[in-house]
């Protein structure tokens, strides 16, 4: 199946000489939730802005549903809804009018039933006649999402959509995201809440210093990089690991009072049984053990922290 977004060798340099994107290539499947992760200044917003036609690329090609974003700008922009980081909307307009106006900007005929449904999905219906200026930050964020959905896009970009939003509103938003995905909308999101990406995304991309350093299906990524760590709290301090345990992937803690053992949860054998047997044979006793599963956040920090 042809990807709904295809990016080839994309680059962006500014007049100052700063290179925001470096030879980025990426395909996004129709109907998936794609999470783009990266530290501040990594290039996430620049990438989104180029695909949405807000920023001009320095090089490369982008197609949206088979349309070139420069030659077929109007066609591609009609397919896309964008929720930017910044809360920019007419402060003195009502919720209903500003969302309806956004639909008209895309040349769509009036559809009050669709606008009503969008506002209800976002728990904005009781605020439909309120001026934007009277709303809380979280409600204003919801209005931005409603505006992005007003023209029934096939692709929705969410750039840090839950920034400054409380837990209840965040949960409601992600419920809507899941319903949109089920209806066939492709979702591309950036977020600093990595647990959201872990819970929602089908595919994860990591960008750092303008380079896309990883793109992989989340399930595969967790299988490959997600490790489990067994920590053994020892009864007696060790100065060094005995040679009889050299066959195991063990690390002695700095205090000498714990052993750390990493293993692949998807492997045929974890090696734990053999490890415990060899510990007993070596006369090493432990008073407690704990396990910890690597999260997507651990993987992200490991990739970016290594300076890749």
From TrEMBL:
* Species of provenance: Variibacter gotjawalensis
Q: What does this protein do?
A: Involved in beta-(1-->2)glucan export. Transmembrane domains (TMD) form a pore in the inner membrane and the ATP-binding domain (NBD) is responsible for energy generation.
Q: What class of enzyme is it?
A: hydrolase
Task: Give the ABC transporter domain ranges.
Answer: 5-234
MF GO annotations: ATP binding; ATP hydrolysis activity
Could you identify this protein by its name?
A: Daunorubicin/doxorubicin resistance ATP-binding protein DrrA
Keywords for this entry? ATP-binding, Hydrolase, Nucleotide-binding, Transport
- EC identifiers of the protein: 3.6.3.-
The root-end lineage is: Bacteria, Pseudomonadati, Pseudomonadota, Alphaproteobacteria, Hyphomicrobiales
Keyword Oxidoreductase (UniProt): no
The gene name reads: drrA_1
Family annotation (Pfam families): ABC_tran (PF00005)
